[in-house]
Amino acid sequence: MKRKLALTNGIIYTGDNRYTDKALLIEGEFVYGIVDYTAIPPEFEIIDVEGKFVCPGLIDLQIYGTGDQLFSAELTVESIHQIEKDLLAQGCTSFYLTLATNTIALFKEAIQIYKKADPQVSLGLHLEGPFLNAAKRGAHPDELIVEATNSLVADLLADQDVVQMMTIAPECVRPEVLQLLLEKGILVSAGHSNATFDQATAAFDRGIRTVTHLWNAMSPLQHRNVGLPGATFNHASVCASIIVDGIHVSYAAAKISKAFMGRRLFLITDAVAACSKGIYQHVRNEDHFVLPDGTLSGSALTMLGAIRNCVHHADIPLDEAIRMATLYPADLIERKDLGRFEKDSIANIVVFDESFLANQVYFRGEEIKN
């Protein structure tokens, strides 16, 4: 029998609406509706959330690991499942598990392990590289950045359907290779790029729909060459992710970006995990990670932490910050059943408090017990 729940006494953020006097109804794995308290059917079990915030499960399209589980270093089914468990506890109910530039052989091995794991929380893989611009490589090893060719892309993506997103430097990838990626259904993102305004705009017009961690590892915005950031601001439809931790970008930059981009800007964590093996040895430095040589290598953010920073430091209202972590990434990946509360949306739900800590998390209608 499908479990029927009514979440009451909460401040409900549905996507574009906010309610303080209604109940969120869950039937089995799906949202049944939002109703007045007087309209709650008698068969629904009442769950009092005690005045806390209720929003759709958070969506992170770029995360590499949690705790001490960096997937690219572990490469195990167990690692994927532990990352899923950790993220659910944080209120992140959908994510793209990300691998930074590595060997093609490792990427192919990771794809097979991911398929074997059959993840339920992760929606697919995001390959950040290896088709990047070495001049903007950041923490990515120079020697592993390679030229994109049709044969290499075809080999990498052969006989698989788990790679959903790829970050490339558009000025380094020929139009015919970009077209092949698009034909394979990959969400292509521009990043680790030294593209000029014209190069970036041309790539957007050819089908690149988003930009990876705006401001970081890309051509700068200058008054005579506004580069990739300027092209991103100027294009009517292209989206961009941003890491709002006050380290990867200043809060002022986040505020300015939001003013330019509105609903096209969404949140990611770009979070990594403590790791002392392999090519990415991440060392935690209080609230971020660095390589052993001090190069900034990833954040220590959670998605709720990113929402908190938007509200407390970037003058972004809570409802809009929530949309940046739910509705906007869901729309980008064309999942109308995620990131919102509508009838028959998947019942992924996070209940959080004023400290931006997850108090209750529901995944497909079932409460996650820590």
Automatic annotation (TrEMBL):
<dbReference type="InterPro" id="IPR003764">
    <property type="entry name" value="GlcNAc_6-P_deAcase"/>
</dbReference>
<dbReference type="InterPro" id="IPR006680">
    <property type="entry name" value="Amidohydro-rel"/>
</dbReference>
<dbReference type="GO" id="GO:0006046">
    <property type="term" value="P:N-acetylglucosamine catabolic process"/>
</dbReference>
<dbReference type="Pfam" id="PF01979">
    <property type="entry name" value="Amidohydro_1"/>
</dbReference>
<feature type="binding site">
    <location>
        <position position="139"/>
    </location>
    <ligand>
        <name>substrate</name>
    </ligand>
</feature>
<feature type="binding site">
    <location>
        <begin position="216"/>
        <end position="217"/>
    </location>
    <ligand>
        <name>substrate</name>
    </ligand>
</feature>
<feature type="binding site">
    <location>
        <position position="248"/>
    </location>
    <ligand>
        <name>substrate</name>
    </ligand>
</feature>
<feature type="domain" description="Amidohydrolase-related">
    <location>
        <begin position="53"/>
        <end position="354"/>
    </location>
</feature>
<feature type="active site" description="Proton donor/acceptor">
    <location>
        <position position="270"/>
    </location>
</feature>
<dbReference type="GO" id="GO:0046872">
    <property type="term" value="F:metal ion binding"/>
</dbReference>
<protein>
    <submittedName>
        <fullName>N-acetylglucosamine 6-phosphate deacetylase</fullName>
    </submittedName>
</protein>
<feature type="binding site">
    <location>
        <position position="128"/>
    </location>
    <ligand>
        <name>Zn(2+)</name>
    </ligand>
</feature>
<keyword id="KW-0378">Hydrolase</keyword>
<dbReference type="InterPro" id="IPR011059">
    <property type="entry name" value="Metal-dep_hydrolase_composite"/>
</dbReference>
<feature type="binding site">
    <location>
        <position position="224"/>
    </location>
    <ligand>
        <name>substrate</name>
    </ligand>
</feature>
<dbReference type="InterPro" id="IPR032466">
    <property type="entry name" value="Metal_Hydrolase"/>
</dbReference>
<feature type="binding site">
    <location>
        <position position="213"/>
    </location>
    <ligand>
        <name>Zn(2+)</name>
    </ligand>
</feature>
<feature type="binding site">
    <location>
        <position position="192"/>
    </location>
    <ligand>
        <name>Zn(2+)</name>
    </ligand>
</feature>
<comment type="similarity">
    <text>Belongs to the metallo-dependent hydrolases superfamily. NagA family.</text>
</comment>
<keyword id="KW-0479">Metal-binding</keyword>
<keyword id="KW-0119">Carbohydrate metabolism</keyword>
<feature type="binding site">
    <location>
        <begin position="296"/>
        <end position="298"/>
    </location>
    <ligand>
        <name>substrate</name>
    </ligand>
</feature>
<dbReference type="GO" id="GO:0008448">
    <property type="term" value="F:N-acetylglucosamine-6-phosphate deacetylase activity"/>
</dbReference>
